[in-house]
Amino acid sequence: MPRKKIKRKVFLDTNVILCYLSGDPRCERLFEKSALRDYQYVVNPIVVQELFHAIEFSRARGKMKRRDLNKLLSRLEVTELGGEKEISDFAEFSKSRNFIVHANDLLNINTALRECDFFVTLDVKLLNLDRVGRTKFLSPSKFLSSELREK
Q1: How far, in Å, are 19, 26, 48, 60 from residue 55 at the CA level?
Q2: How do residues 69-126 score in pLDDT, each as one tens digit?
Q3: How big is the chain by its Cα radius of gyration, in Å?
Q4: Is 4 exposed, middle or buried (0-12, 13-18, 19+ CB in 10 A)?
Q5: Which of 30, 53, 58, 125 is deepest in the core (most CB within 10 A)?
Q6: Number of structural domains in the chain
Q7: How far apart are CA 91 and CA 104, in angstroms?
Q8: For residue 133, what is the domain's CATH number?
Q9: 3 lies in a domain?
Q10: Which residues constitute the domain of residue 61?
Q11: Residues 6+ positions from 39 with CB-CB distance below 8 Å
Q12: 151 falls within a domain
């Protein structure tokens, strides 16, 4: 029986998924077969909730459809928030941060630090983190050029 390849995990921020769903070329390559073959995209319930709210808002303006989101969600791993378990890298992040982020960002970062090698976002404040523990914070274009180019 052939061994199943272990995919590296990538947390996708809400803004990146909305970028993809809106047809923005900066994010389209994230869901090409080569990327899906080598990477498992991860989100948490916070991202799913933000996406449904954004879709409802956008749908009224005819920009996105819920079925597009449902199809996309079938390609993502939706993981739990994590609960009470303390993560040393998250503690390190909390001590070193010198900027204000939304509470949802902290929950997303916690998920990424627990499960992912990469956190892909368009949020400049989060990109300034660069790396916390094993998790690298990258823009979609940097992720695509540095990670997918190597394949």
Answers
A1: 12, 19, 10, 9
A2: 778 888 899 998 765 455 555 555 555 555 567 788 888 988 999 899 999 999 999 9
A3: 15
A4: exposed
A5: 30
A6: 1
A7: 16
A8: 3.40.50.1010
A9: no
A10: 8-146
A11: 7, 8, 9, 10, 147
A12: no
